[in-house]
Design a protein that fits this description.
Number of domains: 3
Largest sheet: 4 strands, mixed
Distance between the termini: 112 Å
Shape: elongated
Strand content: 5-15%
């Protein structure tokens, strides 16, 4: 039964013993598990083996949907976008799988274009693809070599923006400055692109390194985020300092109250002006007073101790 496929698909050789293209002629493991052997015994070219296709989650870098044509049209198709900056020998097969999974799950898609942005064409993305996959990769996918694009002169600012991740470091500053000279609004995109590339630098350090004036980016969200972070840090520092001062003030007041109680035991009743002077002492002064009052014999000793502290 499996070899009926040889009659249904044009171009397939009919199964037969001794056929060099027939795996059964050289590999005894190729035997039908669904058809009992009869006399004379013969090997089949095919075996039937059920396959369960697992559900795998695919996460393309982006899918662009036309505003006026949700399913796409010839002029404005739905665009499946992938950006590949590193070698990945499973990329070609994954790209084919996610493309047709998209078509399976979104039946409204009538026109689809697959766009892949590559760091360069030398990336190893898979080899020995079946002809069906090769045809898809060659005929239905648009490949953009960013390194080759970066070598072109007088690029449109939007295209030049795409080359920033692959530009050589000495060329980054001049490239970003040329983009901003033509399209100052693109600073909103330049900052996150370069921040991703130079993760150790803050946006302000990055702009300084590339020689981009603050006038270009002080109105951007990144700049405002930096200011907001600074404000929040200032508020939090203020709160922390306030809590610290509050705690110190609490300790000072406790030390002052304790000193007054001890003084009343040593020196008798303390008048209001003297009490006010003691309550106004700093925490270190109150700590010194707590030690000194152990030697006081009366109110005069307290006044003598306070005199050097007069402003």
């Amino acid at each position: 039964m499996p070899d009926l496929v040889c009659h249904l698909l044009p171009g397939l050789a009919a199964a037969g013993p001794g056929d060099n293209d027939n795996p059964a002629a050289t590999d005894p493991s190729f035997s039908s598990c669904t058809e009992p052997k009869t006399e004379p015994e013969r090997e089949t070219a095919y075996i039937f083996r059920p396959v369960a296709l697992k559900k795998v989650a695919h996460h393309p870098d982006g899918v662009l949907w036309p505003r006026q044509h949700p399913g796409g049209c010839e002029a404005l198709p739905v665009v499946l976008l992938e950006v590949q900056m590193h070698a990945d020998r499973r990329f070609h097969r994954r790209l084919g799988a996610e493309t047709f999974r998209l078509l399976q799950q979104h039946e409204e898609v009538a026109h689809l274009q697959v766009l892949v942005l590559l760091a360069h064409q030398r990336l190893a993305l898979g080899s020995s693809q079946p002809r069906l996959l090769r045809r898809f990769l060659q005929e239905d996918v648009t490949w953009v070599d960013l390194a080759a694009l970066a070598r072109q002169q007088d690029l449109d600012p939007m295209l030049a923006l795409l080359t920033l991740p692959v530009q050589k470091e000495p060329d980054l500053g001049p490239c970003a400055q040329r983009i901003l000279a033509l399209r100052p609004d693109l600073i909103e995109l330049i900052v996150p692109i370069l921040s991703e590339r130079f993760q150790g630098l803050s946006p302000s350090q990055l702009m300084a390194t590339l020689g981009i004036s603050k006038d270009f980016w002080r109105h951007t969200r990144a700049f405002q985020d930096i200011l907001q972070e600074g404000r929040q840090e200032g508020v939090e520092l203020g709160r922390q300092e306030g809590r610290k001062l509050g705690q110190e003030e609490g300790r000072r007041r406790q030390a002052g109250a304790l000193a007054l109680r001890q003084l009343e035991r040593r020196c008798g009743s303390i008048d209001a002006p003297t009490s006010a002077r003691i309550e106004a002492l700093s925490l270190p002064q109150l700590e010194e007073l707590a030690l000194a009052l152990l030697d006081f014999r009366g109110a005069q000793d307290l006044q003598t101790w306070l005199e050097p502290l007069e402003p």
